[in-house]
Design a protein that fits this description.
Radius of gyration: 21 Å
Shape: globular
Strand content: 5-15%
Number of helices: 16
Structural class: alpha/beta
Mean pLDDT: 90
Number of domains: 1
């Protein structure tokens, strides 16, 4: 197995609220030592852990942080983000930071089906109010990161503010930095977004958003930053009732209106479509609606085995593969051609049923919009 990935040498993600540092966005994080960073300005991309991981990669050895996000999936024959990287080989373990991704907070009004408490306060509130999701071998709960964030909030925001100021300094010192991507939670809910945009004015800046904000707040941002080198990468992959279930808390017509608002103000739009067994059922409608006007990028779901694309009934697989075969856009859709072929584990099928039941019961949602053959296969109807 080839363990090298160029992203490890060029990209970094930080969670401001928790002081967590990811290299890359799929890797297992480390906690930032603020005293160390103050004494080593410009070195955030070159912690001892990052340097050691890069050494291991150059020796074609597995590093633990990347096993968390990529290697373990590849070992099971599943896709990973690493497979999509450019064919670039960098030997310098102290190579400069080129692409920075910043999560300002987990504040989010949505509870998307494939998200988690790590990324969404909506998810955290769900679990606080209703308890953990109990599945076989999997518990979805407010654990680790959530406890860490809660502790930060209980003490004060002073530590977070200190790290944010140091991060702004790191951006100024990163002379080879080409792009900044702001993620969430929902970044449009965070007032610190203005400071990031101001600090990165000479860089390409993208905002990854589920558009879980009011139209008035969105319009304020659009007017304020119209004409700047800012793009929107919008999360979406289904339509209608499917969309409203997958991205619970958002309405499909409202989403479409916001997309039009952003486009009408002259901002570049790309979609990030997360592919899972549930989104596969309606992805073709989303793709056909937006393919002629906007670029669509594929994101492979990780971390939830029961939501992976192959955990699907045979008829749904056949319908999806037939549709894929009829498409000419190989640059986007080629990675999806064999994505449903892996064998299904019974535990994943059982967990899928339990998860859908718990998720819909908590929100008093009907699952009737799902295809009958899928509902019958996973036990939702008899």
């Amino acid at each position: 197995m080839d363990y090298y990935c160029s992203t490890k040498f060029t990209d970094m993600e930080v969670h401001v609220a928790s002081r967590l540092l990811y290299n890359c966005c799929k890797a297992y994080p480390e906690r930032v030592n603020l005293d160390w960073l103050e004494n080593n300005p410009g070195k955030l991309f070159h912690t001892d852990t990052m340097l050691e991981d890069r050494r291991l990669m150059l020796e074609n050895k597995s590093c633990a942080s990347c096993h968390h996000g990529c290697y373990k999936y590849e070992e099971q024959g599943l896709p990973s983000t690493r497979r999509n990287q450019d064919n670039v080989f960098i030997k310098n373990i102290e190579s400069p930071l080129q692409h920075l991704q910043i999560s300002l907070s987990t504040d989010c009004n949505l509870t998307c089906v494939y998200c988690s408490p790590e990324w969404s306060t909506g998810w955290q509130k769900d679990i606080e109010n209703n308890g953990s999701y109990k599945l076989e071998g999997v518990d979805i709960r407010n654990d680790n990161w959530h406890k860490l964030w809660a502790k930060v909030k209980q003490k004060s925001r002073s530590t977070e503010s200190r790290f944010f100021k140091l991060l702004l300094k790191e951006i100024s010192l990163a002379k080879k930095l080409k792009s900044i991507v702001v993620v969430g939670g929902e970044p449009l809910l965070n007032n610190q977004l203005d400071e990031i945009i101001s600090k990165g004015e000479d860089k390409r800046l993208d905002i990854i958003s589920g558009l879980g904000v009011s139209k008035s707040r969105l319009l304020t941002y659009l007017k304020k930053y119209q004409g700047k080198n800012i793009g929107f990468k919008i999360s979406g992959e289904t339509t209608g009732e499917n969309f409203e279930f997958m991205r619970y808390g958002s309405k499909w017509t409202d989403f479409c209106e916001k997309v039009k608002m952003i486009s009408d103000h002259g901002f570049e739009i790309e979609f990030i479509s997360t592919i899972s067994n549930l989104t596969i059922l309606d992805f073709h409608n989303f793709y056909n609606k937006f393919k002629n006007d906007y670029k669509i990028n594929i994101n492979f779901l990780t971390g939830r085995p029961f939501l992976l694309p192959h955990v699907l009934d045979s008829k749904s697989k056949e319908i999806f593969q037939t549709w894929i075969a009829q498409q000419n856009d190989t640059s986007i859709l080629e990675p999806l051609r064999n994505i449903t072929e892996k064998d299904i584990q019974e535990v994943d099928k059982k967990n899928l049923f339990d998860y859908l039941t718990q998720f819909s019961d908590r929100r008093k949602l009907s699952l009737d919009f799902l295809p009958k053959h899928f509902q019958s296969w996973c036990g939702l109807i008899t």
